[in-house]
Amino acid sequence: MLTNLLLTDNALELIDRVFLGSPKIIVTKPLRKSEKYFKIVIERKYSKDRDYFQFSKYYEDKVLHDNILPDDASGHLLSFIYSYKQCDIYSESENYKILLNGSNCKLIKSRGKAVTPEASGSHNKQKRYILEEGVPVNWLISLGISDETGRVLSHGQKKFRQINRFLEMISDVNQYLPTNANIVDFGCGKAYLTFAMYYYFNILQNKNISITGLDLKSDVVENCNRLAGGFGYSRLRFICGDIANYEPGSTKIHMAISLHACDTATDYAIYNAVLWNADVIMAVPCCQHELFAQIKNPELDSILRHGILKERFASTLTDAIRALTLEIAGYKTSVMEFIDLEHTPKNILIRAIKRTGDNEKTRNRRIKELNDLIERFKVSPKIYELFRGTLDL
Predict the structure, then answer these.
(1) Which of 158, 238, 257, 314 is a plausible cystine mate for 292, CB 3.0–4.6 Å?
(2) What pTM value is reported for the model?
(3) pLDDT tens digits, one per residue of 73-99
(4) Which of 120, 153, 169 lies at the terminal end of a domain, its last residue?
């Protein structure tokens, strides 16, 4: 590892200065082929409760997001910048390149349009949501999130931000869904996000998408159907049913959603969606107890002997196995933050998009990775049991 002395005083001063503003920084060209990330993009993000810098680290066909507080951002950048040859900095006034080569550092003022405060997310700019405050939406009013003028009520602020974050993720997969797609929402509950999804696709995007919300509680299903009828949402229906046993019949399912399905219910949702050959699968797991009682690894005893750390590690391992299984099943899979940590601890979303064709060598490598994980931690996860015969694991 090279030392910070490789950077000139001007380069170090620039890095500190741009992190006080609203920059966009792109780190590329790893020095070694073994470097895990081939590109890192850094952007300032704003929320009601805090500001932070999001470090998006790209590797293979995946991306990992780290949210770093402003005071720690420049130090985090300096911890890995020496492993790369180029760092492009787009500040509010001008753009620069930092070129690192061996023991040399070159700072170059580059051409191109500077990032304006509006483009980078200034404090003076209010965040633009897909659902905008001040625009009355019938289901937001009926569900008690906003009043009749479109003003978001104080107790509905967090739910409003969650809905918009969800719609941002839905907009990212819009291109993979045909105009007349069919969507199943497993365990829809009070259906805040189900109504949001219907509104986005059929009202804002002018598609003719049909959505089925599935839940075990008959009174919840009855209320949601009453609301959908009152809104004139003719392609939205809610039925009582269990995730494990739901059958769509001859209907082609294009997208399956599973939000906060408890424990192994998420595994059944993923399994069914793969069997239906769904184009898109989105799952936010919840209450992951299955592997907690199973996991064993003497090398990690210093972690696993602490209950709270073991619980978090077990949840991480569970989601890693789910993501890897989806990759083996032929999906391009990403694991990302659903909403900010301060809103809920259930903040991991697994997104899988069907690939057109698969590399057998890559698939076999992933099967080996999966089996190695299961052997290393002595676990028998439900998703592995479900897919063992189907995917020849």
Answers:
(1) 314
(2) 0.67
(3) 888 888 888 888 888 888 666 788 888
(4) 120
